[in-house]
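Hi V.,

Quick status before I head out on leave. The structure for the redesign project is tokenized and pasted below; the design run finished overnight.
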């Protein structure tokens, strides 16, 4: 793509754009103008932007942004989200969580780390790369959703389906989630564990506690069934993944009386699983355990499993090398390749192209006084520009 009107360097300041995004209180699923702020910045440097609204029964409609510059391949994609989690107790913050104030070189605000500053850094990086290029040897795409912190139903997954229906492809993608434990440059995520939530209901028979032979206590049975899950870890991990972990998150009976055996007992648990498992294999294992725990003394149970994502791994190779080289060039640190943490929208993108995650330091994400060093925002923009330069250089025509 020939660039007829070169964009002057500095057209997008990543810190100023991050502040403008933070000042939009876009708590999932609200947008509050965040996508408009980003679209104006991107359109100003030549991107074509489309708002995509998706909805589904039982879920709120969500606005998303698809931005693209270029028409040919290869296609580099940046994926991120402008939605944020609630602030919690606003009085506990030392500043207004949506004021985006800078104090002593630190930017405060909900979304500063997760992940509006990252989005702003990539926009600035794209501008800087385009400003230096006489031609754009491919395309740059941004997939920005407003549904990452929520149910993730009307966001990235549907945007990818929309792209596929148009015949559009992606060759590599960086998701800008905060990946670094303590300092910028420590970690690149090349995969994530899967997540299964199980809801177990055990049935019994209500009765008087003084006449246990006339009742059937489901709590006793539930305790037996859950016992094998109390080990916390259900395997020893694999080459790139830590052990799969189990946490029982709630046990509910709803029985206000001390002299009544209840008719039902319920428990909810979550399993974060590595690549030794699939959700199908895991559910079969759970049913085997629960069948054994149920025993032969009557009663029954129901198990409902919901999967937010399977485990996945982008095998170390050219893309992870490219990211590590770019991070090291800017920060002096060679980042570790990791699969730790929760889930992200990379779980959807991995079906389309090689995907990895890199962003800011995550120590304050979702916390009171979420904040990021201004210097880190600028360094992240430099890293993303270095990534773009290296990616397009692989075609032999990039600069």
């Amino acid at each position: 793509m020939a660039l007829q009107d070169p964009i002057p360097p500095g057209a997008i300041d990543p810190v100023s754009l991050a502040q403008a995004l933070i000042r939009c209180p876009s708590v999932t699923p609200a947008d509050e103008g965040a996508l408009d702020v980003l679209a104006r910045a991107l359109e100003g440097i030549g991107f074509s932007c489309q708002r995509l609204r998706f909805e589904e029964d039982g879920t709120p409609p969500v606005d998303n942004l698809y931005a693209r510059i270029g028409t040919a391949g290869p296609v580099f994609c940046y994926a991120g989200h402008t939605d944020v989690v609630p602030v919690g107790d606003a009085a506990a913050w030392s500043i207004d969580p949506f004021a985006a104030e800078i104090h002593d070189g630190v930017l405060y605000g909900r979304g500063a780390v997760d992940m509006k500053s990252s989005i702003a850094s990539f926009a600035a990086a794209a501008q800087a790369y385009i400003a230096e290029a006489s031609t754009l040897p491919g395309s740059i795409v941004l997939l920005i959703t407003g549904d990452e912190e929520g149910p993730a139903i009307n966001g990235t997954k549907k945007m990818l389906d929309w792209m596929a229906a148009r015949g559009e492809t992606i060759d590599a993608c960086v998701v800008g989630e905060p990946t670094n434990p303590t300092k910028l440059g420590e970690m690149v995520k090349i995969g994530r564990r899967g997540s299964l939530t199980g809801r177990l209901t055990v049935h019994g028979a209500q009765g008087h506690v003084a006449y246990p032979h006339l009742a059937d206590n489901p709590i006793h049975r539930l305790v037996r069934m859950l016992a094998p899950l109390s080990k916390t870890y259900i395997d020893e991990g694999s080459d790139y993944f830590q052990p799969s972990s189990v946490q029982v998150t709630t046990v509910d009976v709803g029985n206000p009386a001390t002299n009544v055996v209840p008719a039902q007992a319920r428990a909810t648990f979550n399993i974060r699983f590595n690549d030794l498992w699939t959700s199908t294999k895991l559910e079969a294992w759970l049913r085997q355990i629960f069948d054994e725990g149920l025993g032969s003394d009557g009663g029954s149970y129901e198990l409902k499993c919901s999967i937010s994502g399977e485990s996945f791994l982008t095998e170390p190779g050219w893309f992870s090398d490219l990211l590590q080289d770019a991070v090291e060039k800017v920060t002096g640190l060679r980042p570790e390749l990791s699969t730790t943490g929760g889930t992200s929208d990379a779980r959807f993108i991995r079906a389309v192209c090689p995907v990895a995650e890199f962003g800011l330091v995550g120590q304050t994400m979702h916390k009171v006084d979420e904040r990021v060093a201004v210097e880190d925002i600028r360094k992240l923009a430099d890293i993303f520009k270095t990534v773009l330069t290296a990616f397009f250089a692989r075609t032999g025509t990039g600069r």
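Above is the designed sequence. The radius of gyration is 24 Å.

G. will cover questions while I'm gone.

Best,
W.
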